[in-house]
Amino acid sequence: MPEGIIRAGFQVLTPDRELISIISKKAEILINAELEANIKSLESSFKKLVEKALRGSPTYNDIINGDLHGHLGLVDPQGAMDAIITEIVKNIRVDLETVRFKKIGGKNQPAISVFLLRGDYENLLELPTSQYISKTRLSAISFAKSGGHGYFRRRPFFTGDEHVIPWLKWLLYDGQRILVEDYTVIFGDFGKLRVSRSKKALMRQSVKGWSMPAEHDGTEQDNFITRAFDSVETEMQKLIINRVKHIFRT
Prior knowledge:
This protein is α+β, with helices and mostly antiparallel strands. It has 2 domains: about 15-120 and about 220-250, no CATH class; about 130-205, no CATH class. Helix content is about 40%, strand content about 25%. It is built from 9 helices and 8 strands. A hairpin with a 2-residue loop joins strand 5 (about 130-145) and strand 6 (about 150-165). Helix 1 packs across helix 9 and helix 2 packs antiparallel against helix 5 (about 75-90).
């Protein structure tokens, strides 16, 4: 040490409450400002996570490639689901509450509350693809001749009666209740039948009635949309934590 220079130092071994409070307040201001500046970036990242989760869900895949397509009687399952997912993602909003340091486990830790505003289901149920019109089909027996022989044949016909099929509401709200009484769904190769919307299934009279397949049924609080959001919650938390860490590294 050069002559004539005297250094004195000390350590604060016992944290001063006022000092900790000042540091916490400054950190709150810094974190809040940074997160607010990046809210759109976080929102965009959240939207990508949710869309990926929806398109990777068992219900989505069964509508596009599996039997649920036939159960629901969808003519264009891909188009229907694209419209629904686009609407869901479009309405995602991130609402960031002010960061506050709180005593957690005896330590001051930042508590960050983030709300993902999904809107309600009304906008989804108003989409044209969320329902369709089904016409009542009956069968008539007629007599025909061929090669000198006569035979009876059963020919389907539409009565003109129309029914709204709110398939998305059934999927999101109605759980395991009977949705179509006196009918059930049968599967087969119906590609040439005009009366089969999906070309892979038909409704046939039955005493059982039809309800949503149990692996896909939903209620307002628990359906394929809420499950997709829940599945990415941890990843969303990591995005926020990484953003806060980045603040203090720069």
